[in-house]
Amino acid sequence: MLQVQTLTKTFGERTAVDRASFSVDQPRMIGVIGRSGAGKSTLLRMLNRLSDASSGTILFNGRDITALKGAERRKWQSRCAMIFQQFNLVPRMDVVSNVLHGTLNRRSTLATMFNLYPTEDIHHAIEILDRLGIADQAPKRAEALSGGQQQRVAIARALMQDPAVILADEPIASLDPMNAQIVMEALRRIHEEDDRMVIANLHTLDTARRYCDRVIGMRDGRIVFDGTPEQLTTGVARDIYGAGADFSEAATSTEIATLDRTDAERLKAGALA
Ligand SMILES: Nc1ncnc2c1ncn2[C@@H]1O[C@H](COP(=O)(O)OP(=O)(O)OP(=O)(O)O)[C@@H](O)[C@H]1O
């Protein structure tokens, strides 16, 4: 399905991604982890062709993605939707119009200028919002929503493109633990129910372990780990993060687990009282 072969990106003297290779045989939910500057964003941007590789190839269903140009490249970008840490919505525009922006690639400039959307697209956008539990927010301006709701709008916009792959660059890094959990659960559900591949850069180990089938660890531009969450032991994690013996998983942890633990403790206390 997806084959990444010795993919490399250099910025001047700096090698951001260094001969990265991996292949995915069926839609999976993959987490990419590593410390800041390890090359995670650059890898995702190359997969989406937002950034050109310096060398190496990306094959999707046997097709060379690295060679696509013009309209073909744009078509790939819509098959391979991207979501970002900062949501990238149009703040003053209503939610449903933001979602409909996901259809821009297949609409004429004139239709776009006058915001002319086919009725079936509008219905579809609302269905997607409903699936993500935020249909009631459809008429509001995007900026009026919470961070977690905005990220779900961004996911809805991505789904509007009916993508085979969703690339998520630190999708929960700006969210509180509760919203982070809602967003990760939404991505997991989309992966399972629609059979779409999800590749998410995550800055926390526990999130990768909890939601992903496979974890890729990057260090200094290189892939230094590629395995299941079970294989991602503390020792391996220490290696990926290039940390010493004092490495603490808690330092890479979101508060989701802490939150769950607190809930569990509260329940236990309640049960014992
Ligand atoms: N446009 C650019 N120009 C120059 N150097 C860049 C550019 N983009 C990334 N880099 C460098 O490439 C390396 C990898 O960056 P990248 O953003 O991919 O890492 P990351 O793992 O995503 O980190 P973070 O989690 O902080 O986003 C870093 O050293 C970064 O400074």
Short description:
The protein has about 270 residues and is an alpha/beta fold. It has a single domain (about 25-50, about 70-270), classed as P-loop containing nucleotide triphosphate hydrolases (Rossmann fold, 3-Layer(aba) Sandwich).
Query: Helix coverage percent of residues?
Result: 25-40%
Cα Rg: 20 Å
The CATH topology turns out to be Rossmann fold
Give the bound compounds. adenosine-5'-triphosphate
Structural class: alpha/beta
User: Would you state the CATH class?
Assistant: Alpha Beta
Compute the number of helices: 10
CATH homology group? P-loop containing nucleotide triphosphate hydrolases
Mean pLDDT across all amino acids: 87
**What's the quaternary structure here?**
single chain
* Poorly predicted residue ranges: 254-273
Which sequence of strands runs across the widest sheet?
A: 6-7-8-3-9-10
Largest sheet: 6 strands, mixed
Tell me the series of helices and strands, N- to C-terminal.
EEEHEEHEHHHHEHEHEEHH
Can you offer a commentary on this structure?
This protein is an alpha/beta fold. It has one domain: Rossmann fold, CATH 3.40.50. It contains ten helices and ten strands. The strands form two sheets. The protein has a six-stranded mixed sheet, with helices on both faces. A hairpin with a 2-residue loop joins strand 9 and strand 10. The radius of gyration is 20 Å and the shape is globular. The C terminus is likely disordered. The structure holds adenosine-5'-triphosphate (ATP). Adenosine-5'-triphosphate binds next to strand 2 and helix 1.
